[in-house]
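Morning F.,

Quick status update on the modeling queue. The single chain you submitted on Monday has been processed. Sequence for confirmation:
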Amino acid sequence: MTWNTFLGGTGDDQGKSLAIDNSGNIYVGGYSAGTWGSPVRAFAGNYEAFAAKLDNSGTFTAEPPTVTGISPSSGPTAGGTLVTITGTKFVSGATVTIGGAAATNVTFVSATSMTATTPAGTAGAGDVKVTTPGGTATLTGGFTYSPTVPGAPTIGTPSAGNAQATVSFTAPVSNGGSSILDYPVTSSSGGFTATGAASPLTVTGLTNGTAYTFTVTARNSVGSSSSSAASNTVTPATVPTVTTPTSASVMQTTATLGGNVTGNGGASVTARGVVYAETATNAGPQIDGGGVTNAAGTGTTGAFTVDVTGLTANTGYSYSAYATNSQGTTYSAAGNFTTSPTVPGVPTIGTASAGNAQATVSFTAPANNGGAAITGYTVTSNPAGGTDSNAGSTGLSHVVTGL
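Structure tokens below.
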């Protein structure tokens, strides 16, 4: 009667029935308010009913459980589904796994019923296993994980370009149990979108100078995730537009030059002006180019002029208007002008020969013609009164009469 040490005499444990099978195994039934340990399930008072088996050596043997059903039999891959498991020989302290992962909130209801919360799993059927001191029972493929929409991606920092923005993001933690097909990125204004399989994606068709934020979703075979948080704000832009190089009031050493900034490109103009250089040195002048002078202007957009000085007479120049914003500097087409020539140098007088009331005067041309061909010479007498009969001619010998 080795089992009697568990059931005897205190008033807390009551054996109510006894049976012996042909193999000599002993079966005991009753109720108990005591605490029993393995292999019999643990009792915690309140006079719980029990059934125990002793093998023919006198050792308690717990009965193995069975699992006959689970309801509901499907749920999302994220887990969190409360299920009821039915079967036999369930005991308090039993554990449950679904799809190989431990269920949570396992609650013993009766010897034929338990409840549990499903763990996260992968899409498809998973085995339901209940383990007690008597063994493990399996309901093969008893619970099916159904795919759901993915989690929301995490938005990154967009970068603005010319009428576009490139948006980065990271994939969601969960794909919902189904491969992600693509990621749609959407602008806050105008609803411009870009869709692709991976980050980053470039949204085009934006308006330069307009501020945008962006959100991204993930899509699988079930549907689309919720939107990510909105990105920070970016403003697409490009370089300004500059047209119509102008030149006016061109003198020997000065000129008035200009251009027209017809658009700021979507970003504030921070500088504008005119660059110029002698054509022989640089026919396409730009800032920091060889032989280039920068004549800075004022203002932002619209037509403008700048006055330049220090030019060389009778010299060809090339020039371009420019404007700068956060995206860079742009230039108009190159224009050209030539400064005015100066007066020629002084001729060198030669020898005068006298005649009847006249004199013939010879001379040599000046070393510097002032940048233009000499169109004529005039000889004057001292004292005055003589007349150069060849005045205005280019000859180097003139006759002065009336002397």
